[in-house]
Amino acid sequence: MSWIAGTYQTLRVAREVSPYGYFLTDGENEVLMHYTELVGKKPKLGDEVEVFLFFDTEDRISATMKRPLLTLGEMARLKVADVHPRLGCFLEIGLGRQLLLPLSELSEKVEYRPLPGDEVHVILGHDKAGRLLATLAGEDELGPLVFEAPQAWRNQWVEGWVTKSLQMGSFVLIDGGVVGFGVFGMIPSSERTRPLRLGERVAGRVTFIREDGRVNLSMAKLKQEGRLEDADRILAYLKERPGGGMPYSDESPADAIKQKFQISKSAFKRALGKLMREGAITQKGSWTYLAEAAPEAGGASGADSQASDSTGTSTGPGADHSEG
C-alpha cells in the first residue's frame, strides 16, 4: 500500500533499531516510528499498533502514536502558534509540531491576518507533494453545521471567532453552546471599531436577524449606553489635560476624533451634548474645556496657551488635531 499522510493505520512492529526507534510494516513496506513518538509502554516485536502518518522535518513519511486534533479531510479550530511573513501561519495540531496555513490562504492586508493565540477554522489537506497542509474552512464547510439565530438574540451581546475579514466587513462564527455548532454573523465595516483579524475572538451586539437565520452585528453599544461611556472617557481625558482643555469639538474632523478616541464623530457629538447639558464642559471656538477651566472671553489663559501634551505639540488655541 502507499502511505497517506494524515491518516491512521494499524501496523505491525517489524524490528527495533537503536537509537532511532521501531520500524512498522503493513506486510510490504516499512515506516519509522521514532522513540519520541511512543505513547504508553514500549511495543514488542510482532505487536500491532495504531499510528498516525505524517512527514517529518526531512520530508520522510513517519509514524506516531500521538493523537492529532484532526485527520485528513476533517475540520477543527486550531490555535496559531507562530506567524511567518513569507510562509503564513503555523498552527498547533497536537503532535508537538506545527501545521502550515499558507500565505495564499490569508488576506493581502496584514492587519487582517492572525496573530499567535488566535484560533482559525481549518481543514486538513495535502500539498502537491502529499505533505500535510491546512486550508481555511469556508461557508461550504461551516454552513451545514450552523443553526438559525433565535429572535430573542436581538440587541443581545454574543461572542465568536472571526472566520474572514474583508474591507466590507468581518464574518463571525458565533458560539452555539449546547444548542449547536454556532450562528453565522457579519460585522459591517461601519460597525467595526477597529480592524478585525482572522481567528480573533470578538464580541458583538446583534442588530438584525435575517430571514435565513444569520445576523448582523455591531461592536458598538446602544447609543444611550455608549453615550455614557464615551462621556466618561472624554471627561477623564479633560481632567488629565493641562488647563482642562482639548483641541477637539463638534467641529473637529471625523478622522481626528476616531484616531484620538476610537469612536465615530456622531458618538463624540452625542457625548459632548450630554456633558454640555449637565454643565460639565463648554466650547470656545474649536476647543472644549471643563466648565470650571474655561478661559474668559477674549482668549485662553496663559497656562492653556503654553501647555504642551506628551508629544510636545502645542495644546493652546490654534493648535491642530495631530496630537496623540
TrEMBL record:
Q: Which PROSITE patterns match?
A: S1
Q: Can you provide one Gene Ontology molecular function annotated for this UniProt record? A: nucleic acid binding
Superkingdom field: Bacteria
* S1 motif domain segment(s): 73-137, 155-220
* Region of interest called Disordered, as start-end residue ranges on this chain: 295-324
Membrane-crossing segments per the record:
none
Q: Where is the composition biased (Low complexity)?
A: 295-312
Q: Which InterPro entries match?
A: CvfB_fam (IPR014464), CvfB_S1_2nd (IPR048588), CvfB_S1_3rd (IPR048587), CvfB_S1_st (IPR039566), CvfB_WH (IPR040764), NA-bd_OB-fold (IPR012340), S1_domain (IPR003029), WH-like_DNA-bd_sf (IPR036388)
Record's family?
Belongs to the CvfB family.
- Mind telling me which PANTHER family this protein's record contains? CONSERVED VIRULENCE FACTOR B
Protein known as: S1 motif domain-containing protein
Organism, per UniProt? Paenibacillus radicis
